[in-house]
Write a structure and sequence with these properties.
The chain is α/β, with parallel strands linked by helices. The protein is 38% helix and 15% strand. Strands 1-2-3-4-5-6-7-10 form an eight-stranded parallel β-barrel, surrounded by five helices. Helix 1 runs parallel beside helix 2 and helix 4 crosses helix 5.
């Protein structure tokens, strides 16, 4: 099973620390932001310690092609405002080129909010932006991986049908999909009792060959709530069995599976759950690890 989590890329160690954190969870892939996810500040590539990180990753049996880079949340390719879209396009071009230099293969991004625009107008804006980004990053070797969304507000990409329209409009083999289990559940797809039907629908409308990354998250919400609130594995409305099914599906054995579940609050601090969640998914058995973490 190719599985890991979001890890921190900050402080003096940068990417080296991110790989070390992933190894502490016994992960064999990982996801990072190249800077804070809520803003556009980024350190120069020369300060990320990528060479040291690659050497350590090799020692830990982590292929650097399985290091997923996630774009910051503030980018919006769907909106009408030309200056904001131009900023997002140029910013993504810069990060994708850096991702290629680092050795990452997948750059995950949210499609954006269409605000007052129609679905078709929003998709058209995203498609035009992506065509330019793809052309300007042709030599990077990095795929652009658009994430399935929960459908809150005016988010684009809430359905397989919308993503299929985007793929058709962009017309590039470099445009791939990140399937987020919480987002799909919150958007109304039944991955609990209708898992095979959902995967079959994805295959018909998009194609399993487009699936590049899977975000494995439980959800605090009932199916179709369109809220996007992640929960720890086995503690939410999706449940352990359904999440284990997708994480262990042999059709996706070569895709990086990334946990983005919440930290666990103990009496004195918050602790990451990823070592325990990864172990559970590898074993295929749920246990109440949160109580264990709270007890220290």
């Amino acid at each position: 099973m190719k599985i890991g989590s979001h890890v921190s890329n900050k402080g003096a160690e940068m990417l080296l620390g991110a790989v070390r954190e992933a190894m502490s969870y016994e992960a064999n892939c990982l996801m990072i932001y190249l800077g804070p996810p809520q803003n556009s500040y980024r350190k120069p590539l020369s300060r990320l310690r990528a060479d040291e990180a690659r050497r350590l990753a090799a020692e830990g049996n982590i292929d650097f092609a399985d290091v997923v880079i996630h774009a910051p949340y503030i980018l919006n390719l769907a909106q009408e405002d030309g200056s904001h879209r131009r900023f997002a396009i140029d910013y993504m071009v810069s990060e994708i080129i850096d991702a290629g230099i680092i050795g990452a293969k997948n750059y995950v991004f949210h499609p954006g909010n269409r605000l007052k625009l129609s679905v078709e107008e929003g998709i058209d804006n995203i498609a035009r932006a992506l065509r330019e980004i793809i052309e300007r990053t042709e030599e990077s070797g990095v795929d652009l991986v658009v994430e399935t969304m929960s459908g809150k507000g005016t988010e684009a990409g809430k359905s397989f049908k919308e993503l299929a329209l985007l793929i058709k409009a962009v017309d590039s083999p470099r445009l791939k999909i990140c399937f987020d289990t919480c987002h799909a559940h919150d958007a109304g797809y039944d991955i609990v009792s209708g898992y095979e039907e959902t995967i079959a629908l994805f295959d018909r409308e998009i194609g399993l060959d487009r699936l590049a990354v899977i975000h494995v998250n439980d959800s605090k919400n009932e199916r179709g709530a369109r809220k996007d609130r992640h929960e720890n594995i086995g503690y939410g409305k999706i449940g352990f069995d359904a999440l284990y099914r997708i994480a262990s599906d042999p059709r996706f054995s070569d895709r990086p599976k990334i946990l983005e579940t919440p930290y666990v609050k103990t009496e004195n601090r918050e602790v990451p759950p990823y070592r325990e969640e990864i172990a559970m998914l590898r074993r295929g058995r749920f246990h109440d690890f949160i109580e264990e973490l709270k007890k220290g």
